[in-house]
Every structure is written in C-alpha cells, then in structure tokens.
Amino acid sequence: MPTMADVARSAGVSVATVSHVLNGTRPVLPHTRQAVLDAIDLLGYTPNTLARSLVTSRTRSVGIAVSAISNPYFTEILQGVEAGALAEGYGLLIADPHDDPRHELDAVRLLHERRVDGVIVAPSAEPRDLVAYLGRHAVPTVFLDRLIDEPLDDSSVGVPPFDQVCAENSEPVAQVVAHLAGLGHRRIGLVAGLPGLSTTGERITGYRHGLAAAGLPHDERLVVHGNSESAGAERATATLLALAAPPTALVTANNAMTIGALQTLRNRGLRVPDDLALCCFDDFAWADLFSPRLTAIAQPSREIGARAIRVLLDRLAAPDRPARTIRLPCTVVHRTSCGCPEPSRRPWPLEPPQRPQPSQQSQQSDHPEQPRKGSAS
User: Fold this and answer.
1) Cα separation of 237 and 224, whole Å?
2) pLDDT number for residue 48
3) Which residues pair with 143 in a beta bridge?
4) CA dihedral angle for residue 176, residue 304, residue 199, residue 335, rounded to 10 degrees
5) Residue 142: what pLDDT?
6) Measured distance CA(264)–CA(148) in Å, rounded
7) Can you tell me the distance from the alpha carbon of 160 to that of 305, in angstroms, rounded to the nearest whole number?
8) What is the pLDDT of residue 96?
9) What are the C-alpha distances in Å from 169 to residues 147, 192, 308?
C-alpha cells in the first residue's frame, strides 16, 4: 500500500507539502498542489483519516439525528444532507432519537463522542437537556425542521443561539383553510401534531389565521392532536367524527397523520371529498395516485437538507458568525381531495399524430421545386 512518503517522492516534494495539500493546513502553489494530486491518483494512495484528524482536529464527518427516518419527508432531507456533505468531502453518521428526549440526548452524545465536526438535529418536544449539552460542549449545531426560538428555562440562559433551517409552516396552512372555507365549509377540523414541537404550534397558528381570514369562529373542539403518527391520527379523526356537529373538512398536519385519518374514514365508510373534504401537510410521491388525488402542502425537503449542511459547514468555517434562522417556502398542490373538480387532462394514450398528406405537386415530381425566376431562394 503506497505511503505519504511514496507520494512525496513521485511528486518531487517533501512529505510536509503532501500533508499540507491533504489537510489544508497551509497554502500550496497551484502547480505543486496539482503534482501532489496527480501522484495520489497515479499511486492509488488512500489518506489515513484517523491520522489526518489528529493533525487537523477535524474528522470531516457530520452527525445527523432525526426521528422517523423511514418517513419520506425525512428521507428526502437526509438525501439533501448527504449529497451536500459528500460534495464537500464529509461523511455522515445517522441516529434516530425516536422523539424521546432521553434517547435524543444519548444519540447526540454518541455522535459527539465519535468526534463528528458538527451535528444536525431535529429536536424533540422537550429538548432542554439536549440544548444544555450542546451549549456546554460548544458543539457546532444546526436545528432542522423544528425551531427553538427562546431560552427553554434558566439552565439554557446564556447558551448561544443555534443555526436553524425549516420550512414555512403557518402561511400554507392558512391558505388551505381559507381555500376550504371558500368552497363553503364552515366547520374545518385540524389533526395537529405532537404538542411541544414548533411545527405543531406554527401549523395550529396558521389554522387559526385561516379561519380568521375567512370570518369563521375558532372552535377548540375541532383541533385534536394526532401526535404526529398514524395511530394517533386515527384516534384524533374518530374524536372529531364523534362530535355532535362534526367537521365537513379536515386538515392533517403531516403525512403519517394523513394515512391515519384516511384509515379512520375508510373504516367508517366515508368518502373523500363527498362526505369529508381533506387537505394535508406534506406531499409525498403517491399523493397523486390516491383516489381522490390529495391536495397537499409540499415542503422543499431535499433543499431543507441541502441548506442545513451548507449552514453547518459555514459555521465550521467561521465559528463566530451570527446565528441564522432560514425558512424555505412551501407550495400548495391543489388536487381533488378538497372538493375541487378534476382538471381536464389530455386523453391517454394519446392519439397518433396524423401524417400530412403530400401535395399534388410533390406527388407529380421526385425533384424539389426550383425557385421561380425573380423569387427569393
């Protein structure tokens, strides 16, 4: 196996120069740097990552802790993080905290002990211990999807603010509620997420804003928590349907709860949108395949992940830079589960195009027409 000394001999430089090229510890002239890289490629040299980390105090690895990794939303976020990390030469270590505050702290502590350069975390509903740990150890951190906008208690006072990346939550929910009201619905229910999550609070706020914009009163009985999971949404939807005046339209606050709500409606023999209109937060690949097709709020999941890793790498490059909170816009994808008619579509399969009939003149001659005298050629 080739060594760093072999690379140095092949490139005609010192071992120290090879080290500077590999570790970025000192500027190297462009032609010298290229000679080292060519030698590495020629010899098939593989740097010793562990040895490099001892020199640079960096492992070029990032930890990410998000719950429900199997959820398509978080899967796309992970793809965005991974692509951005690999493009910059960083590896990725993944942990699932299961939305359990104690497990969350253990997961992040384990990542930290693996000497990751920084972490990306979707915090739980009770992140006090997590925030205290990250602040105490000065771990470069980006909070993902769920925000922490103020000190959680006295123990977190003085902890510097963290970088944060998430989607807009309130405004798109307000839009779909106003849309349902515009279709004539006066009792609109909300299956909300896990209490304590910033996403849950913001989507409830958007729901209330949408009601207010439509001139509808807020009835607390129409908001039931599905705890961000399918089974919880089944129970929440059943609770709403049991009301003396049940809702005629429903908004579900994430994709897992959409599945739970649909399961309850199916068990009751209720049809969407004939018996109950439905709009959901989180679009997913098969939303357009449901019958009816689901009207959904689409989050820029992959871009959220890509921005999160970019913000973390910026933090690593400039530890003293001011903290940033970045919000990315969502898109309301209008389909038919809200009660809107199916948009007209071109027939499928398409009819084969009609071949143009040859002109009479072209049938009479195999030669192209010559331009007339005096005409433009």
Assistant:
1) 8
2) 59
3) 121, 164
4) 20
5) 97
6) 33
7) 23
8) 92
9) 11, 12, 17
What is the identity of the amino acid at 65?
A: A
Asked if the peptide bond before residue 292 counts as cis, ω within 30 degrees of 0, the response is: yes
Q: Report d(CA 286, CA 166) in Å as an integer.
A: 23
Please list, in sequence order, all residues whose beta carbon lies within 8 angstroms of the beta carbon of residue 331, skipping any fewer than 6 positions away: 172, 297, 298, 300
At a CB cut-off of 8 Å and minimum separation 6, what does 261 contact? 191, 226, 233, 234, 236, 237, 250, 252, 278
Give the tokens for residue 321: 């830079």
Dihedral (C-alpha) 228, 229, 233, 236: value to the nearest 10 degrees?
Answer: -60
Question: Any idea what DSSP says for residue 156?
Answer: G
Q: What confidence score (pLDDT) does residue 58 get? A: 64
List alpha helices for 123-189, DSSP H: 128-136, 170-182
Please work out, in degrees rounded to the nearest 5, the angle formed at the alpha carbon of residue 245 by the alpha carbons of 244 and 250: 125
The SS3 of residue 238 is helix
Cis before residue 349, ω within 30 degrees of 0? yes
Consecutive H or E run containing 129: helix 128-136
Q: Are strands 331-333 and 295-298 parallel, antiparallel or unpaired?
A: antiparallel
Sign of the CA dihedral 188, 193, 196, 201? negative
Strands 325-328 and 91-95: unpaired
Q: The tokens of 286 are what?
A: 């098969």
Bridge-based pairing of strands 249-252 and 91-95 is unpaired
pLDDT along the chain (377 residues), means of 10: 86 87 80 90 72 58 87 90 93 92 93 94 93 93 87 49 94 97 97 95 98 97 96 98 98 95 96 96 82 93 97 94 95 94 52 43 38 35
Question: Per DSSP, what are the bridge partners of residue 327?
Answer: 166
Given 3-state DSSP classes, what are the helix, strand and coil percentages for the chain, each rounded to the nearest 5? 45, 15, 45
pLDDT of residue 346: 40
Max Cα separation, the chain?
95
What is the residue type of 329? P
One-letter amino acid for residue 306 of the chain: A
